[in-house]
Amino acid sequence: MQIDFSDCSVPGCGDPDAAIGVFDSGVGGLTVLQELRRLLPQENLIYLGDTARVPYGTKSAETVQKYACEAAAFLVGKRVKMVVVACNTASSVALDLLREQLPVPVIGVIEPGASGAIRVSRSGIVGVIGTEGTVASDAYPQALRALNPEVQVYSAPCPLFVPLAEEGWAQHQIAALAAQEYLAPLLAASIDTLVLGCTHYPLLKPTLKQLLPTKVELVDSAWETAQMVWQILQAGGMLNRTSSGEWQFFVTDVPRRFVRVGGAFLGADLAAVERVRLASASV
Amino acid sequence: MQIDFSDCSVPGCGDPDAAIGVFDSGVGGLTVLQELRRLLPQENLIYLGDTARVPYGTKSAETVQKYACEAAAFLVGKRVKMVVVACNTASSVALDLLREQLPVPVIGVIEPGASGAIRVSRSGIVGVIGTEGTVASDAYPQALRALNPEVQVYSAPCPLFVPLAEEGWAQHQIAALAAQEYLAPLLAASIDTLVLGCTHYPLLKPTLKQLLPTKVELVDSAWETAQMVWQILQAGGMLNRTSSGEWQFFVTDVPRRFVRVGGAFLGADLAAVERVRLASASV
């Protein structure tokens, strides 16, 4: 797979004032954006939601790789200094490909989530929930075992959690029942840590906390990712110290639904959202 | 929007032995295919699921129109004698466009569903459930009022029904709870007829029947559409009387998930499914 960078001969790499680029298939990545905003209020942020092709979680690795390359190329064209893949599915299957090809650092949500889980787990028995694509990719178990070869990982896809979050039913009895179904095998395995391996899932935290024994710690990849972005920028002397933090939003379908659903995810109004077309990546 | 028919200079129009082309965003349209198969076992059927971009129901009219044109152009390239838009969202927003441009008859699922509802309703108070896109398009109320200007229509989007059906939870307690939420305003309006305005919803029939008062009739657009296809082919002398009925399946993402989930929708194994790329329609 090749990305066409002909439009971006001068990427923002090396310029602390350049924006951080963030992409997701839709609104989910806004939970990552929110954590970045909290932790790094001076950074300029450019967010792209590929809403014409959302979701990625039920699609094949090959198709998600193509979409992720197209999204990342758009952000590099905006001269960002870093690309954050704020989507677990895309992070699971496309991170290596993006790192090979992009002229700026690429941060996914899997490694930060795995790192957080290894840090908090006492028993070394970790549960991971995510989309079908994320779970099928085996990316979390691999990342966890890279950090601790002894770790035991139990994964469960939770396909209903995304539509429940988008419907505004994350704390409805229906969400509790679905969570009960999905988590039963993980609880039977005595996990003491649960990784929220999908950017939509932080909205289900209250429901999950009610269901889980108090000993089970929730690891929120969005929060962990923001920490890692901060560390990497700081280590490279790339923190923005002059800006008041602007954000820009782009989507690939008409913005109406993104504005409506995304507002709830971000806890803020999404005023100016622009529709764009992505150039096609050759596969 | 323009469709490129340069690859299909000799469409199947006029040839009774040509196949019927059927498309949907994913597996949902297989409920329509199944009804066609039951009613017209001698017809050859070509099915296209646009699984790289599924679902259509949450996307804008403009984006769905583009996708529908690309799907229809693929089928016409296969020299079909008729195109069945086995997707309520695409039928809602793209049917006129397709009819203007395609060289073969185009049948959607809205008009047959509306016609069925007008036939069975005694009170003239009709409920319609569908995706966000279908409900927002106002296509069912318009089609119903065209047949009976006095009809009262109450619509409700049911976004959770599609993932519930695909999860195999169409008859789970969660589906019953979701149905209760969604149908409450329709029941309060005393509907006596409920149109299943999404090709996934026939899988929820048992759950809906348990919830609805016995006086409420369910109208299944898939079944109604098959009836209409039969009538139109018969009227035009276009029924296939020589074939034993072959079917072919094409998808735009890798077939694995389509084969797994689609098998349950069709009640049969999906053996040979081929992945294809659709040519881009200019907008």
Overview of the molecule:
Two copies of one chain form a homodimer. In chain A, 43% of the residues lie in helices and 16% in strands. With 283 residues, chain A is α/β, with parallel strands linked by helices. Chain A has two domains: 142 residues, Rossmann fold, CATH 3.40.50; 112 residues, Rossmann fold, CATH 3.40.50.1860. A six-stranded parallel sheet of chain A has the order 4-3-1-2-9-10, with helices on both faces. Chain A is globular, with a radius of gyration of 18 Å. About 2% of the residues of chain A have low confidence. At the A-B interface, helix 7 and helix 8 of A face helix 7 and helix 8 of B.
Radius of gyration of chain A: 18 Å
Determine the mean pLDDT of chain A. Answer: 92
Largest interface: A-B, 29 and 29 residues
The total count of strands of chain A amounts to 10
Stated plainly, the CATH topology of the largest domain in chain A is called: Rossmann fold
Our measurement of the CA-to-CA distance between the termini of chain A, rounded to an integer number of angstroms, reads: 4 Å
Low-confidence residue ranges of chain A: 5-11
Structural class of chain A: alpha/beta
Overall body shape of chain A? globular
The CATH class of the largest domain in chain A = Alpha Beta
Strand order of the largest sheet of chain A: 4-3-1-2-9-10
Helix content of chain A: 40-55%
Percent of residues in beta strands of chain A: 15-25%
- Please write the string of helix (H) and strand (E) elements of chain A: EHEHEHEHEHHEHHEHEHEHE
Structurally, the number of domains of chain A stands at 2
Q: Quickly give the CATH architecture of the largest domain in chain A.
A: 3-Layer(aba) Sandwich
Number of helices of chain A: 11
> Quaternary arrangement of the chains shown?
homodimer
- What about the largest sheet of chain A? 6 strands, parallel
